């Protein structure tokens, strides 16, 4: 599968712990996005990278959340001091500037207990 | 503020029947509209976009700016069309990378 890859697929953590997710976009895609999806909702935009630059962060992304894309390839999303409200599916997507299509990964399902 | 509304959470039809999944949007600029689909245990994927004006898997969608709608239609539903469907709006201008999604409609096509 040469699509967007996310790791891990599932994560269960205790409240207060830190977690980190990884996203490997499709090769040569310069755009990378993180979305969050909770039960019964559509995906909600969290943040956007163009190459290594983080160009926008949603209000949904509190200061406990940080995302990086250090070399303009893979990206990580870290959540510090997790809360039960952070339980969700975290989706990564990638694309190229001249094409508006976003290609999604299969997501990382986070459960905070 | 931008908003995408899919009024039906669930839609159930019989095989061979016509199907219409409704989508209405609210956006002050010139949006680009998409339909994304998620089949069981698969990733979210693009089904079609309004600027292409194409038919994918027998589905079509027409952007109606007057009614601010982008309904998805198929004349004869198939069992393999059963999936979650999300309508999405791409922002224009400086935030043209961002998608706003509706809450989705779960389509079930019964044999």
At a glance:
The complex is a heterodimer of chains A (113) and B (111). Chain A has 113 residues and is mainly β.
Output the keywords.
heterodimer; A: 113 residues; mainly beta; 7-stranded mixed beta sheet; 4-stranded antiparallel beta sheet; 11 strands; 50% strand; globular; B: 111 residues; 6-stranded mixed beta sheet; 3-stranded antiparallel beta sheet; 43% strand
Topology:
The complex is a heterodimer of chains A (113) and B (111).
Chain A: E1 5-7, E2 10-13, E3 19-24, E4 31-37, E5 44-50, E6 53-57, E7 65-68, E8 75-79, E9 88-95, E10 103-104, E11 108-112
Parallel strand pairs in A: 2-11
Antiparallel strand pairs in A: 1-3, 3-8, 4-5, 4-9, 5-6, 7-8, 9-10, 9-11
Chain B: E1 3-5, E2 10-14, E3 19-21, E4 24-26, E5 32-38, E6 45-49, E7 60-61, E8 72-74, E9 83-90, E10 99-101, E11 105-110
Parallel strand pairs in B: 2-11
Antiparallel strand pairs in B: 1-4, 3-8, 5-6, 5-9, 7-8, 9-10, 9-11
Q: Main sheet of chain A?
A: 7 strands, mixed
Order of helices and strands of chain A: EEEEEEEEEEE
Could you tell me the mean pLDDT of chain A? 94
Low-confidence stretches of chain A: none
Number of helices of chain A: 0
Which structural category do the helix and sheet elements of chain B fall into? mainly beta
Q: Largest interface, and how many residues on either side?
A: A-B, 25 and 22 residues
H and E string of chain B: EEEEEEEEEEE
Question: What integer is the average pLDDT of chain B?
Answer: 92
Quick one: how many beta strands of chain A?
11
Query: Which percent range fits the helix content of chain A?
Result: under 10%
What do you see in this structure?
The complex is a heterodimer of chains A (113) and B (111). With 113 residues, chain A is mainly β. Chain A has no helices and eleven strands. In chain A, the strands form two sheets. In chain A, strands 2, 4, 5, 6, 9, 10 and 11 form a seven-stranded mixed β-sheet that branches. A four-stranded antiparallel β-sheet of chain A has the order 1-3-8-7, with no helix packed on it. Chain B has 111 residues and is an all-beta fold. Chain B contains no helices and eleven strands. Chain B has strands at residues 3-5, 10-14, 19-21, 24-26, 32-38, 45-49, 60-61, 72-74, 83-90, 99-101, 105-110. In chain B, a hairpin with an 8-residue loop joins strand 9 and strand 10. Chain B is globular and about 45 Å long. Chain A binds chain B through residues 3-4, 31, 33, 35, 40-45, 48, 50, 55-56, 91, 95, 100-107, and chain B through 4, 9, 32, 42-46, 49, 86, 88, 90, 95-104.
